[in-house]
# Entry
Amino acid sequence: MGRTAVHPVLEDRPGKRACMLGNVAIARGAVEAGIQFFACYPGTPSSEVGDTFASVAKAADVTFEYSVNEKIAVEIAFAASLTGARTMCSMKHVGFNSANDPICVLPYVGVEGGMVIVAAGDPSLTTSTHEQDQRHFSRLAHYPIFDPATPRDALEMTKFAFAFSEQTRLPVIMRPTTRVCHSSGMVELGPLSTHRNDIKFTKNPQRYVPIPVNSRRMRKEVIDRYKLAERLLAESSFFPRTGHGRNGIIASGVAYAHAAQVIEDLGLKGDVTLQQVGAYPIPEAVLADFLSAIDSVLVVEELSPLVEESVSLFAFRQGRQVPVFGKHTGHFPLEFEYSLDQVEDAVRAYLRLGKRKTVSVTVPDLPARPPVLCPGCPHRTSYYLARRVFGKKTVYCNDIGCYTLGYGEPLHACDTLLCMGASISQASGIARMTGQRAVAYIGDSTFFHSGWPALANAVQANDEVTVIILDNYVAAMTGFQPSLTTGRQDPPGGAPEGGASLSIEEAVRGLGIKNVYSVDPFDEEATVDALEKAKQGCGVNVIVCQSPCVVNERRLRRSSDRATLEIDAERCNACSLCVRLLGCPGILIVDGEYVIDQDLCDGCDLCADVCQHDAIKKVEVETT
Amino acid sequence: MESIDTGQVDMRKPSGWRICIVGTGGQGVLTAARLLCDALVEGGHDVVSGQLHGMAQRGGGVQASVMVDCGISPMMGSARADVVVGLEPAETVRALPLMSSQTAVFMNTTPVIPFTLGQQAVLGSEEAGYPDIAGLESAIRQVTEQVLTLDATRAATETGTVKAMNLIMLGCLLGSDMLPCTPEEFWKVVAQRVPPSLAEANAQAYNRGVAMGKNFQHAGIGS
# Structure
């Protein structure tokens, strides 16, 4: 694919209409507002915000980093704000939680340069451990929160947010959900900002040090600033109302886009009063205006019934008897994202339009296509060898990354999972209580993200744990962002320019752990030897399995030369050992015959090692 | 066999064009959607495009929608698709809830067999085999008669690169004259984006698709 000369985020054509991905639109909004600093830790569905800045930061004169974790991204972005810079940091809701410590105190201290925290949500848990509604943080920690329905909203709200943040001295949250992050829609490009805030840190400890004597004062100030935010939002363009009629619909986030679509598709445009809630706190003036225009209301919002409760409470306070329909009336569920059908059904029920007609058809059972570790993935080798040595009774605590796909048949590498870094702490807890050695699996990026303190904790307690660090030199799951070990790969796999890279082995030894082994998991002898030593050893043992992500390798080298394997049908007696031990998608069983999928096979050799009948052989092939 | 509900459009036909492209990872679903978006935006249309894909790098199901002059939701409602372009047969049937009697379907008949089918049997868990293609086609024909099936994978291989399969399928779509974009206008957008070394094989594949699309009898969008 050819590339256009100018990245759409940097295109200087005000007024141009473009179809833009939600996450890219956020980056564009920030560039139009004159952003000067950006930090993030990747996490689906937020990753493309950071990846966009990784491409354009230099040209846009933005100081950029992939941080070691979200807490650091927030802290460093906040510090940049204190120097006057307009700053942004981005993460998914799960990472947002791991940054809650600074996030909850930030509004007290207040910003200098405008600060926007992108905290993407993932209703329906497409790639998350849980679903969560970040809009609660508006009340919880005094954040103005923007809730875009479309990429256009995402751009306009982000652009507005920086000056608004400076005016209120509050950091603001941008909360797109997966459907907004990963959908493309029409935006109109605005002028690129030529304005840059002056950079200077002026000492002012009374303002920047939230010790109780100052925090008590800040506590009162933050309430005033939150009220100011509400007044400013009331004058903003993010609460549009369309249509007429005493039947009202109020909606927020992507659910607003669905509601507007349903009204249009049903030919009801103009007959219903449709109110968008684009930000929180919802200004009372907006609610008052809306309620005066309608006699009843259907609330359309995903996850928590925040708008629903705000509307009910406000109507109650005003002494208005307004029937409010939504989650509490069963028009919508509390969980998961809404489909367009669900919204249509609720609107039909609310307006008594009669049910949507459906027809029933019978279809053959369709095969599932579950996600699996890629062919040639080094994690598969590590899992296979570790299980061979540690056996099936050992408890395997796993962590967040591609390697979580070791869950289930046939690798059985994931008995517990919780959150980033928890594999090591969970292994500690289980080993300490059962008296049996437990194994923790964790990737390089996750290890530095938050596995590191848990390892120090295990050392302090002298827990009987073996920590297997799966170092593939990259954050593969979220789109191959660099990790702290990226630059150590030989040849280097695109380390961040000027950035240092760390040795996990040296770092781990620095904690006082003696039994540390660095191995290439495709070197069976050395890996098994290290695993055996770790099994016999006392206290904390660490094995660093170093081998690059195969997909990233292919991406970087763009090489078409590779080896694949072949199964000799004469020798193969279909014993199924390779499948039962490895579950590699490159091995197909067609009418009982075992064959290697030449398109998928990466030539890693593991199945050839496992085969007892010497039936699997390497062949050199060239692919286009 | 399983019974599923598909919506039936009983109200007036909404405005615009709704296209759904489905297939498996690596087949070029997202690229096809992007090309359509670019061409239609260049033609002055408003486009909203959504996507749904699993975590697998390759082999997982992928669904992308391209909605032209329709509105602002990135989702497609049941039975709302004007066209379904299926790069893989089972994945095409998975999109059945989006189809109505008004929907035109282009389906590639070469399956991508999930590796799990054979392996599941070995590992002892029950899993049905890959359904036969004729059965998949007749499942679709329960809902709509406007179906064009073709072996686009083989046709692409014949033109020199299997990777051009998505272009054959897009050729069918553009050749059918259902979109507000001519086959030539669309090719201009593609030509800007393919490496010169593949331009000829791609053009050949695309034109083959266009020819097939031109012969396809359909009710047309908005009829």
